[in-house]
Amino acid sequence: MKKIILVRHGETTMNLEKLYYGFLDPDLTKKGIEQVKSARKILEKFDYDEIYSSDLIRAYKTAELINYKNLEIKTSKEIRELNFGIFEGYTYEELQKKYPKELKISQENWKTYNFENGESPYDLQKRVVKFIENLPDGKTYLIGTHWGVICTLLSYYFSTGLESYWKYKIENGSVTIIEFKENYPLLSGLNLKGV
Description:
The chain is an alpha/beta fold. The chain has seven helices and six strands, in the order βααβαβαααβαββ. It has helices spanning 13-16, 30-43, 57-66, 92-98, 100-108, 121-133, 147-158, and strands spanning 2-8, 50-54, 73-76, 140-145, 175-181, 184-192. The protein has a six-stranded mixed sheet, with helices on both faces. Helix 3 links the parallel strand 2 (50-54) and strand 3.
C-alpha cells in the first residue's frame, strides 16, 4: 500500500492577478499562508513518512508550513506546475492580443499543445505519474505541489488520460488524498480544507 497526500500551495499574487504561470515563482500572500496553516490542522490527523515539494517557492513554503513532523523536505522539479512557456506572466486578455493564434491552438488541442518554450498537459501528466509511481510502496507521502499536478493525477487515476483534467475544483491550501491498495487507486479525500 502507498498513500499520497497532496497539498495545493496557498494563494499567490499571480493567482490574484489571474495570470498564466507555472514555472514563474511568486511567493505566498498573507492569505495564502493562512490557507496553508489551516490545511496543517487537517494534516495533523494523518501520519506521513516522507515529505516532498516542488522546488518552486510557493510549494516549498507550503511544505514547510505543513511539515508538523519537521522531516527533511525533499524537492523535485518533476512535481512542478505546467510550464506555460511564452504564456507565462500574461492574463487571458493580454494573450488574446499578444498571441491570438497560439491561444486558439492551445484551446483547440489543449491536451497535446506544446506551449512554445514550455510543455503540454500530456507532458506534465507523464512526468508527474512517473514521479508518483517511482515512490516505494509501504509509505505515506506528504507532497506540497500545484493545481495542474493534482488534477493531472486525479484525471490519470480516476478517468482516462486527461479526460477529467478540468473537472476538479482544487482550491489553494486544500488537501487531496489518494491511496493505492495493490496498485488500485482509491480517492479517500478531495479538496479537504481547514476551518
